[in-house]
Amino acid sequence: MTGKEMVELVQQHHPELGPQEIIKMLNRASDDYTARTRLLDSATKFTTVANQRYYGLDGSILEIRAVDYTNDEGELEAIPRLVGRPAIRDIT
């Protein structure tokens, strides 16, 4: 089914909706479906900065399941998942 066919099908049941609004809703539904079913799986890599807790992430990232870093020996090491609040809050 093409995008145009999907828009036309939705408009049959909801004639008050415009094509742009329908396309936004379909894209949101697609992202939701992909996240729930874990249909897409990929990894990304970026450089970190010492003592920086927060980083801006690409909008295409739907979920973070694991984080690894390269230790001083050049080996990948997993960062354990945080449960609860951080001991030291950083709002910068």
How does this structure look, described?
By secondary structure, this protein is mainly alpha-helical. The chain has a domain at 3-37. It has two helices and two strands, in the order ααββ. It has helices at 3-13, 19-37; strands spanning 68-70, 76-78. The chain has a two-stranded antiparallel sheet with strand order 1-2. A hairpin with a 5-residue loop joins strand 1 and strand 2 (76-78). The longest helix has 19 residues, at 19-37. The protein is elongated, with a radius of gyration of 20 Å. The model has no long low-confidence stretch (mean pLDDT 88).
Chart the SSEs and their pairings.
Blueprint: H1 3-13, H2 19-37, E1 68-70, E2 76-78
Antiparallel strand pairs: 1-2
Helix pairs in contact: 1-2
Class by alpha and beta content: mainly alpha
The SSE string, one letter per element, is HHEE
**Rg, Å, rounded:** 20 Å
Number of distinct helices: 2
Cα-to-Cα separation, first versus last residue: 46 Å
Task: Outline the low-pLDDT stretches.
Answer: none
The total strand number stands at 2
Percent strand equals 5-15%
Largest sheet features:
2 strands, antiparallel
